[in-house]
C-alpha cells in the first residue's frame, strides 16, 4: 500500500531545520506524549544520546536525533509517537470534483 | 460561434485567451512564436487579462510558469524542439509538483543537425516526464484541446502538453470555429488552488527520503492512469457543450469491420482519414486508429480496437535511436501477450520530409506485403 501523501510534495518548515544540515538525514522524529512515566528506558536505548531528562520531563534534541525510532519501539508505555518529516494537507485534492 | 481562418499557433492563442489564462510565461522560438504574438495582441487590446512574463530562456519560462501555478494561477506557455529540451528539467519538476500548467508545443525536429521543420521527436523526448501529452490533427482540435487540457490538468493535478506539428499546422490556416467566451466559461470554471500559502508556510519540493519518494511516484503514476478516464469524460462533456467530438484518448475511424489498421497521431491522422476513405472506395477494409493521448497511453482501448484486424501499420514521425518509433513500440507493448498480430512500424517524415497521402497508401500496401517479415521497424521515404 502506497503511503498517503500530500499531492504537492511539501513539508512544514520544522524539526529538520534544527538538524545540522548534511549530518542528519532524518525521516521522522519522536514526540513524547502524556503517557510517559519517566522510566528512562528510551534514554538508555537511544543510540545518539538525543534524549535526556530536563525539568522532570524527557526532552528530544533534534540536533542529535537520527529518527531511528528505537525509543518509540522500546518505550514500555507506548508514550512516543514518531512523526514523519513532512506534514500538512498542502495540495491534497481528490481527483473528482470538490475539495477534500 | 464564429468561423475564422486561424493557423495552429493562433488557434492555441485563442484557446488560451478563452481559457482566461492569468499568467503567460514565454521565450520566443519558431514555429511556436506566432502563438505568443497573438496572445500579446490580445493582452494589448485588453481582450486578455494576463500577466505576461518575458523570460530570458525556456528553462526560466517554465520555471516562472511553475511558480505562478504553485501560487494558484491558471498558467500557460508555448514552445517546441530545443526550447522544450531546455525546459526538460523544470518539466519534471512541474509534473512531480503536480501543477496543471498547460503548454502548447508546435512540434519541430531536434538538433543536431539543426532543423526548423516538423517532426514529433521533441514531444517524444518528454515521454517519461509525467506530462499528459495530447496530439491534435487539425487547428480546430488545437483550440478545442487547449480548453480541454486545462480541465483535464486541473482535475488530475497534472501538467498537459498540447501538440500540433510545426508549419504543417502551426503556419497553415484552417477554418476554425471560435466558441463564445460565455460557453467556455461554463465549460471551464476555475477553482483557485494555491500550493503556496503565506498563512500556512511550507517547503515545496523538499528533500524526500527513500521512505517516501517511491510513494510519491506511485501516486503520480496513479494520477496519470486515472487521467485516461478524465480525458474521455472531458472530451464527452466538450462534445455535449460544443458539438465537436474529439473522442478522448483514442478514436477508431471506420474500424468496425477493418482488417488493416493504420495507427498514428498528429497531422498524419487527417491524411490518414483521406487514405482510409480512398481504400474503402476500392473495397479494402481499412481503418484508422488515432492516438490522441500518447501519455497516458490508452493500451487497453487500443487492444479492444485492434482485436479483429490482421494487419497493423504504425506511422511514427520520430525515431527513438536504437529502438524504433515511439508509437510503434507502445503499440507492440500494448498488444504483447494479448494479440498476436504482426505490427509493422514505419519511420516517416522526419525533419519536415514530405509524407503525402499517396505515400501513406504505399506504406500500407508495403506493410501487408511484408507482414510476415520480422523487421523491428523500417524507414520510409529515404
Ligand atoms: S521509555 Fe517511554 S515512558 Fe520511559 S521515559 Fe521514555 S518515553 Fe517515558
Ligand atoms: S529516534 Fe532514535 S535517535 Fe531519535 S531520540 Fe529516538 S532513539 Fe534517539
Textual characterization of the structure:
The complex is a heterodimer of chains A (100) and B (382). Chain A is α+β, with helices and mostly antiparallel strands and 100 residues long. Chain A has a domain at 26-84: Alpha-Beta Plaits (2-Layer Sandwich). Chain A contains 2 helices and 5 strands; from the N terminus they run E-E-H-E-E-H-E. Chain A has helices at 41-45, 70-74; strands at 10-12, 28-32, 51-54, 57-60, 80-84. In chain A, a hairpin with a 2-residue loop joins strand 3 and strand 4. Chain A is globular. The two termini of chain A are 20 Å apart. Residues 88-100 of chain A have low confidence and may be disordered. Chain B is of the alpha/beta class. Chain B has 2 domains: 2-242, 3-Layer(aba) Sandwich (Rossmann fold); 250-379, Rossmann fold, CATH 3.40.50.920. Helix content of chain B is 42%, strand content 19%. Chain B is built from 12 helices and 16 strands. In chain B, the strands form 3 sheets. A 7-stranded mixed beta sheet of chain B has the order 3-2-4-5-7-6-13, sandwiched between helices. A 6-stranded mixed beta sheet of chain B has the order 10-12-11-14-15-16, with helices on both faces. In chain B, helix 1 (8-18) crosses helix 2 (33-44). The radius of gyration of chain B is 20 Å and the shape is globular. The N and C termini of chain B lie far apart (44 Å). The model of chain B has no long low-confidence stretch (mean pLDDT 96). Bound molecules: iron/sulfur cluster (2 copies). One iron/sulfur cluster binds next to helix 1 of chain A.
Please specify the SSE layout and strand pairing.
The complex is a heterodimer of chains A (100) and B (382).
Chain A: E1 10-12, E2 28-32, H1 41-45, E3 51-54, E4 57-60, H2 70-74, E5 80-84
Chain B: E1 2-6, H1 8-18, E2 23-26, H2 33-44, E3 51-54, H3 58-70, E4 75-79, H4 81-96, E5 102-107, H5 121-124, E6 132-135, H6 139-156, E7 160-165, E8 174-178, H7 181-187, E9 202-204, H8 210-242, E10 250-253, E11 260-264, H9 268-281, E12 286-291, E13 293-295, H10 299-306, E14 311-316, H11 326-335, E15 343-347, H12 357-369, E16 378-379
Parallel strand pairs in B: 2-3, 2-4, 4-5, 5-7, 6-7, 11-12, 11-14, 14-15, 15-16
Antiparallel strand pairs in B: 1-8, 6-13, 10-12
Helix pairs in contact in B: 1-2, 1-6, 3-4, 6-8, 9-12, 10-11
The complex binds iron/sulfur cluster (2 copies).
The site of one iron/sulfur cluster has 13 residues of chain A, from helix 1.
